[in-house]
Design brief:
Structural class: alpha/beta
CATH class of the largest domain: Alpha Beta
Order of helices and strands: HHHEHEHEEEEHEEHEEEE
CATH superfamily of the largest domain: NagB/RpiA/CoA transferase-like
Distance between the termini: 59 Å
Strand order of the largest sheet: 1-12-7-4-2-3
CATH topology of the largest domain: Rossmann fold
CATH architecture of the largest domain: 3-Layer(aba) Sandwich
Largest sheet: 6 strands, parallel
Length: 221
């Protein structure tokens, strides 16, 4: 018996635990069907109202949004956003299948791939989930959407499918548990609400303190 097993045995004896199998089943059931907390009523709305709520909350958090009919419109929307803000005509994204399938002909943009570099001023990512009640984006780390794209460039453009907008945080975590159950658990989960900001110095709000100064969300569908 190892030292660890001896310690656990003493703990079980002090708790008068005699049915380890039943306890294991209880824990497994709790992990499989976690209890849900109180869900805000404002997020429990139909699909169209959920999208509208997401847009309203994202813009309240200082993000900008644009609604697109299809993924085909993404390249021109990205080019237009960069041009309107006098940013360099360059964008970088990861290996996300939706972003990798885009055709950039006619945009005159330089398109880079992979993790962000110091010279990048704008990045393009795809969010796994959007949360309507707070206007937040859920981005998973990995080759598809490297985490550095979320923090290093001055401007961050995020693609979010309208069908991936859920009402509340609890539902978002439910989707992530489903992803983890398929063996795709990421190293990092980033919840992003608006551009980076800080009010630590004299309570004066400073945009871009720890990440992008601008966050633009392309809601597709």
């Amino acid at each position: 018996m190892s030292a660890r097993e001896a310690v656990l045995k003493r703990i079980r004896m002090s708790l008068k635990v005699t049915d380890d199998e039943n306890r294991k089943r209880t824990v497994a059931a709790r992990l499989t069907e976690p209890p849900r907390g109180v869900i805000p009523a404002r997020s429990q709305v139909d699909h169209d109202k959920r999208i509208a709520l997401f847009v309203a909350m994202a813009e309240k958090a200082a993000a900008t949004t644009e609604r697109l009919a299809s993924t085909d419109a993404i390249p021109q929307a990205v080019a237009r956003y960069l041009r309107d803000r006098n940013l360099p005509a360059a964008i970088r994204h990861g290996d996300d299948p939706i972003l990798s399938a885009l055709t950039w002909d006619g945009t005159q943009l330089r398109v880079g791939h992979g993790a962000a570099a110091d010279s990048d001023t704008a990045a393009l990512s795809r969010a796994t989930v959007g949360i309507a009640e707070t206007g937040s984006l859920v981005l998973l780390s990995g080759r598809d959407n490297p985490t550095t794209l979320n923090f290093m460039p001055e401007a961050h453009i995020v693609v979010l499918r309208a069908s991936d907008i859920v009402g509340d945080l609890e539902t978002a975590w439910g989707r992530l548990r489903h992803i983890a159950g398929r063996g795709r658990l990421p190293r990092n989960v980033n919840l992003i609400t608006g551009p980076s900001r800080s009010g630590d110095i004299q309570q004066t709000m400073l945009m871009g303190a720890h990440g992008p100064r601008d966050l633009h969300i392309l809601v597709v569908g």
